[in-house]
Amino acid sequence: MFFSCANHIGYGVLTWSLPEYDLTAGDVVPVFIQSNISQVYVIGIGSRSKERIEVPLWQLSLYKSKSQAQKAAAGLEEYRYIYAMVKLDGLPIRAQPDNTARQVYRLRKDQKVKIIRKGEGVPVISGKAPLEGDWYEVMSDDGTTGWCFSYNLTLFDERDADAALKIIVDTGPDPVLDNLLAYTWYPDSYRTMIQNNRVDISRIQPQWGFYPGKTSGIARVETADGVVSFPYTGVTKMDNGAYRFEGTSLTVQVRRNNTILVQYADEIGMPVALYFARLDIAPEQLIENEQERRDAILAGIKNTGPRFVSGNYGVIQFLDDGRFLWSGYQLLTPAIIPAGAGGGGTVEVRYFLNSALAKDYNGVLSFLFDSTGRWVHFLYTIDSQGLRLEQVSESNIRNAVVTARNLTPTILFFRPEKAADEN
């Protein structure tokens, strides 16, 4: 159905440029017909608007008067020529400038969007840091409008014909890319553990990592949250130095110190950013070395005893295979050792000391009685005179590191059995 009440029905502001007619977003044009059946406006262009063309309804905003249209066009002037190309598949357009707001549209990689204006919004956090970028109100190439964060957009001025194509083309051998594809990259937290000499076995899985898929053409990210695969057709170096795995949302940026930043969009379009590192040791060997270190500590304590005696807190005996027996600990129940804990269980070296505590203690011993599911932790020192234990609460343990003593610590002293017998 066509609607017309005079020579023209109003004036429209173009929301998307029509370069074939030398029209730019923000231009004001007379509108003669609106068809809700064909979903088009008929507008006038050229000298005295004698030529008539059809434009989709979404490509124009209609106003009753020319002055209203001109006022609306003035509000679009700042970003009149600005568009953007989408960097990854699944990038969401949201109802509000907030990464938790309702999605109204999901963009395709290399899709073109019109920038309407920049707004204030909620920062987008990846890991513990905010991503660089701004919230923009955008329009897709089918007229859907909403808000999009610019981290995964490449903005350009349409007057610069090459602005949207600033991708570095193949210029020959790329040793950085060769290095990227040649190795398996493991979580950067593994590298940090090695550097700090605090290898937390509970936070290491050999299969976790980034696998570039050099021969298979399928890159893979495997973490505690699961596996994400990216079948790709090639790898292209972009102008920011990152590498885009073609046909996917995956990009990888090589950083110094043999680390990489891996970024992609998850199944709901949320950005994911993960750091991985190249290691000089396989995770399996890292676990084995750390377990040997822990076993050696327990063996050293056992060799000093293996039985340690206290007049108040009973007798602890260290056995093979990380087992212990503890009797006569009634004074520690239930404040430290749970009631009904039984007489034995597993002892492990599970945690580390911060630098301040390391000056006064040898380490941390953790006891798990067979009849309970609760670990009991002690700072310890050991020498030829005996074993000194100081209970530490789990509230003072952060990321496998004991950060402080208890405010009112319970201190236990045990003598080796031979020394006890001599006295």
Q: Note the main sheet.
A: 8 strands, antiparallel, barrel
- How do the strands of the widest beta sheet line up side by side? 25-26-27-28-30-31-32-35
pLDDT averaged over residues: 88
Helix content: 10-25%
Low-confidence stretches: 1-5, 164-171
Distance between the ends: 109 Å
Determine the number of helices (DSSP H or I, runs of at least 4 residues).
Answer: 5
Count of beta strands: 35
Proportion of beta-strand residues: 35-45%
Cα Rg:
33 Å
SSE class? mainly beta
Structural shape: elongated
Give a quick rundown of the structure:
The chain is mainly β and 423 residues long.
Short descriptors:
six-stranded antiparallel beta sheet, 423 residues, mainly beta, disordered N terminus
Commentary on this structure:
The chain is mainly beta and 423 residues long. Helix content is 13%, strand content 39%. Strands 25-26-27-28-30-31-32-35 form an 8-stranded antiparallel β-barrel. Strands 1, 2, 3, 4, 5 and 6 form a 6-stranded antiparallel β-sheet that branches. A 6-stranded antiparallel β-sheet has the order 16-24-23-22-21-20. The protein is elongated. Mean pLDDT is 88; it is low at 1-5 and 164-171.
